[in-house]
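Hello again, I could really use a second opinion on something today. I've been staring at a protein lately and its backbone has me curious. Can you walk me through what the C-alpha cells say about the fold? Take your time with it, there's no hurry, and the full record follows here:
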Amino acid sequence: MNGPYKPGTPCWIDLMVPDQQAALDFYCDLFGWQGEVGPAEQGGYSVCTLKGKPVAGIMKAMNPDGSVPDPLPPVVWTTYLSTDSIDSTLKAAGDAHGTVMMGPMDVMELGRMAVVSDPTGAVFGLWEPGSFDGAGIVNEHGALIWNELVTPDIPAAAAFYSAVLPVTTAASAMPGADGYTEFKVAGRAVGGIMDMAVLPPGVPPHWQPYFHVDDVDSIQAAAVRAGGNVLAPAFDMVAGRMAVLSDPQGGAFSVIAATAPEQPA
C-alpha cells in the first residue's frame, strides 16, 4: 500500500491481550512477522511488520495509569476504518445511534483514533491518518486481506455505516455467495457483512480480520501446535479455502488462501 486509504476502508487492525509477549511469539511464528514490545512512552505498543512494512498492532491490556484492568477486557482484534475527519465521523456515529467508547485522541504525530460501538453491538476503531496511513502491506501471505462485520441485523448495520462513512453496501455478485453483503468504497468491495445467525449461540457481534496464507491447512496445524484453537476447520468456499482460528489467549481470526474471482469469458 502506498498513500492513504480512502475513507471508509479498513486500514489497520490491532489486538489487546493480557500477555503481549506471548501474542507476539504466536503471530510472528505463525505469519512470519517481526515484532517486539514497544517503548514505554508508547505504552509498549508493538507495530508488527512483514517485509519491513507494518501489518498489525499488538498491545498489553492496561488502564491509562498502567494498571491491569479488572476484569480484563475480552481478547479481540479491532478493525480500524479510515476517515479524513474523526470529529465529523464521531458526530455522525452519535447521530446514527452509535456509541463512542474511547477517544478521540491523538497518537503522537501518527494520527488520531477513536473506538466506537455500532447500534448492533459490534466494536470498531476509526483512524484519521497523520504520518501513519495504516497497514503497509496487504493481500500477501501473512497480511490482512479482508475484514468482515458479523452482526444480528444486516440492514441496521448497513444503514449505520453508510450514514457515518462514505461507504455503500450491496449484495455480493460473486457466484455462490448468496445472501452475503459487501461494503464498497468508490465502487470497490473493501469488506463484508455476515449474519451471525449462522454462528454458534453466544458469539457476540464483532469485526473479524482475515489473513491471506498460502496453505490454510498447514497454518491451521501450526496454530494448534502453538496452543491455538480451531473454531471452524479448513473448508473450501466460493472465495477460496479458509479456516477460523483463535490464538492461545482467545483472539479469533480467519485465514484464507484466496482465489481470484472468475472473469466472464
